[in-house]
Design goal:
The structure holds two protein chains of two kinds. Chain A is α/β, with parallel strands linked by helices. Chain A contains twelve helices and eleven strands. In chain A, the strands form four sheets. In chain A, strands 3-5-11-4 form a four-stranded mixed β-sheet. Chain B starts with 9 loop residues before the first strand and ends in a 13-residue tail after the last helix. Chain B has eleven helices and 13 strands. The chains are: A alpha/beta, B alpha/beta.
């Protein structure tokens, strides 16, 4: 690579950075606004009446970050048509390299801004907590989580960017019509392979999303990025001339075709997934589904609280809390289900087992606060059970990046409650056999 | 500026160039070697292939066949050559939200020879506000600004595609003066396409005429001025003279009749025409282009009213 070419790449990169700086500002502002709305939403949306244990702040931020960033790439200028730099001296190499450099510099700027926002968000959460007074901030600020989050988001970006730019380069090289035909064929073949169970789409997705070792995730994603960029470079350097922008009509046609294909794909994927879905919903557990309890025992038995209740009246025993799932078990059922140990004897007492999600944040069980402040008592056959109406707020700014940290053990975000009902929060009442009505 | 690639006497060498837009044959086997250090007019009717030729030279279009060399190199792959050539037109894809001052910065960033001081002086002369957004400019001001930037790059090969569209007559005249003076100060190859050849012809030293994708001629302006003469007088005398001389155009008017004949106004043929009673006068280069490329014959327009 000659000195002139390197200088040219530098010049074009500088120009493109300046040309698209407004979009960058818009993207960062949008992120900031999202963080702000997300946090203000805490004040507005948390239902004071229902004891919600977990509220997430901005857990979708990585996805939004990615979407915004890709939108910048797509909308600032059509990749490789380079319309806005066509006035200035360039070659196919300098156009490609400068564009890729520009996008990566944007990525770094946005990531640094995100880190700044993470710090600002922490301050906002502190202020909100001060105002409300009923929040329990968990994982509000953790620099290790932030760094892992940055690497995670960056790796995701690099992988998606690599694939996107490869697709764009091929499209630019082939022209609109040939591209639509090629991508349509690829899409249909892909859908057919999925339909025929030759390709398992979940397997491919899980290959990346379920990877729990950060190093391996980085290796996988960066390899894809590197290969895509090399291929893109090879294609791009064979595009000698600057291309005209794709006309609006073609864009509309492309979008329509993509929607049709997605519809087709959706139908295929529905066929292929039916029958393979395994029901793992917590709601399927019942008090008498004993075979399930072995699983529960492994994961979710957290605290046993013994309450003595002499005149227990089953008929008066109602659900204790509207948001909790309450199950009644006989001692035998509990023993058979592995809920209680065989050496254990109730001795005419009632055993209340409270199940909280065993989520750990920074080596601390999140439910610990609730257990420490929980009261269970039995008075005149009525069970009294309460815990402080404090809302736990988890700051999942960097999404599920916690999965790479040993000090965190959080469940899938979907299981974390934001609406009052929480499938993870259950209470088992275990009494002697004769107290259970068959 | 300069280097080994500037050794040739030609700024641009085009050989066997063809360009198709789908089925339209826009450039037809064009062969031309354009001399260095001249102001050259690229003249042709709408759709004759002027812009296509410019775009091919500048890598905006890929030729269907043939080769283009600029300063003895490939402008598509050699960045050193690219930095010595500029293509400018009245409506560049600058980006609607760019301020002019930023665009000038971009030019300075990418063209090593861009003279920002000169550009700023021109901006003042044309009374343009540098802080204005490009999209807020009128067509004339856009043209002026693009012309200023292109001129200030001082590129060895400067291609101006209809640079004066929309500019008022006063500024157009100033622009012509500046163009000529700057060329004298910094000689280089400047190729201008324009419809208004009468304004330009005093500045031009050479002229390329293309029509329907074909090269009609590439001549020095003096040669063009000697290409034809006008003989005005009796229509019978004109027809008589046309029997022995090549006639380009004939006009049988009710008041006056004239013929445009090939040859210099000072040629022997012109003297013969004079002897037949015709009044001889020069034909301007613009009119030469009209008569050479016009596809209308005498009386073709009459059908509009009959």
């Amino acid at each position: 690579m000659s000195v002139e070419l390197i200088k040219n790449i530098k010049s074009l990169t500088k120009i493109q950075l300046k040309q698209n700086r407004k979009m960058l500002v818009v993207a960062i502002s949008a992120l900031g606004l999202f963080v702000l709305i997300s946090n203000l939403g805490l004040i507005i949306n948390i239902d004071n009446q229902l004891p919600s244990f977990f509220e997430n702040t901005t857990s979708e931020l990585p996805q939004i970050f990615l979407a915004l960033f890709l939108a910048i790439i797509i909308f600032t200028t059509t990749i490789l048509t380079n319309n806005k730099i066509s006035l200035y001296p360039s070659t196919s190499i300098s156009r490609f390299v400068s564009r890729v450099l520009t996008d990566h510099i944007y990525m770094i700027i946005i990531l640094v801004s995100s880190l700044l926002m993470y710090c600002i968000e922490y301050l906002i959460l502190l202020v909100i907590n001060e105002v409300r007074g009923d929040l329990l901030l968990v994982n509000a600020f953790d620099i290790k989580y932030a760094l892992v989050g940055i690497i995670n988001v960056m790796s995701c970006f690099l992988m998606v960017y690599g694939i996107l730019i490869l697709l764009c380069c091929v499209a630019t090289k082939l022209g609109t019509l040939k591209t639509i035909i090629l991508y349509s064929v690829i899409f249909i073949v892909w859908a057919m392979l999925i339909k025929g169970s030759i390709i398992e789409i979940n397997g491919i997705l899980n290959y990346f999303s379920k990877e729990e070792i950060l190093g391996l995730f980085v290796l996988k994603t960066w390899c894809i990025w590197l290969i895509s960029i090399i291929l893109s470079f090879l294609v791009a350097t064979r595009i000698k001339t600057m291309k005209e922008e794709v006309g609006g009509g073609w864009i509309i046609i492309t979008i329509i075709i993509i929607f049709i294909l997605i519809g087709t794909f959706g139908t295929f994927s529905t066929f292929s997934s039916s029958g393979t879905t395994t029901g793992s919903s917590w709601e399927s557990y019942t008090a008498f589904g004993i075979s399930r309890f072995q699983q529960l025992k492994k994961t979710y038995i957290n605290k046993q609280t013994l309450v003595k209740c002499n005149n227990f009246d089953y008929n008066k025993f109602l659900k204790l809390q509207s948001s909790l799932d309450l199950y009644m078990l006989s001692e035998t059922q509990a023993l058979n289900g592995g809920i209680i140990d065989r050496k254990y004897s109730l001795n005419n007492e009632i055993l209340v087992i409270t199940l909280f999600p065993a989520d750990k944040s920074n080596n601390q069980y999140i439910y610990q606060y609730y257990l420490d402040n929980m009261n269970i008592s039995c008075e005149d056959s009525f069970m009294k059970y309460d815990f402080p109406n404090i809302k736990t707020v988890q700051n999942l700014f960097w999404g599920d990046s916690y999965k790479y940290l040993e000090s965190y053990d959080l469940n899938d975000n979907k299981l974390l409650n934001t609406s009052g009902r929480n499938n993870n929060q259950m209470v088992y009442i275990i009494t002697s056999d004769d107290l259970v009505k068959n | 500026m300069g280097g080994d690639f500037n050794m040739s006497e030609y700024a641009i060498k085009v050989s066997g160039l063809n360009m198709y837009y789908n089925r339209t044959h826009a450039i037809k086997n064009l062969n031309i070697n354009i001399n260095k250090n001249n102001i050259i007019g690229l003249i042709g009717a709408n759709g004759s292939g002027k812009t296509t030729l410019f775009k091919l030279c500048n890598g905006f279009l890929e030729e269907s066949s043939g080769t283009i060399e600029i300063l003895d190199g490939n402008p598509l792959t050699d960045i050193a050559i690219k930095e010595q050539m500029i293509y400018s037109m009245h409506d560049l894809p600058i980006g609607d939200n760019e301020k002019l001052i930023n665009v000038m910065e971009y030019y300075k960033e990418s063209y090593p020879t861009f003279d920002i001081v000169f550009a700023n002086k021109l901006i003042d002369i044309f009374n343009i506000n540098k802080k204005t957004l490009y999209r807020r400019l009128s067509q004339g001001t856009k043209s002026s600004f693009n012309f200023i930037c292109a001129l200030a790059t001082r590129c060895s090969v400067t291609m101006l595609d209809e640079p004066f569209i929309g500019i008022d007559i006063v500024r157009r005249k100033i622009a012509h003066q500046i163009l000529l003076r700057d060329f004298m100060e910094h000689p280089r190859t400047i190729i201008i396409s324009s419809h208004n050849l009468s304004e330009l012809d005093s500045s031009l030293s050479e002229m390329i005429l293309i029509d329907d994708g074909n090269l009609i001629f590439y001549k020095e302006m003096d040669e063009v001025r000697e290409m034809a003469f006008r003989g005005e007088g009796n229509i019978h005398s004109i027809h008589e003279f046309a029997k022995t001389h090549n006639i380009m155009h004939i006009n049988d008017g009710t008041v006056t009749s004239f013929g445009i004949f090939e040859g210099s106004p000072n040629s022997k043929a012109a003297i013969e025409a004079e002897e037949l009673g015709l009044v001889i006068s020069n034909v301007s280069p613009e009119d030469v282009c009209v008569y050479v490329t016009s596809h209308l014959k005498e009386g073709d327009l009459e059908c509009l009213w009959n």
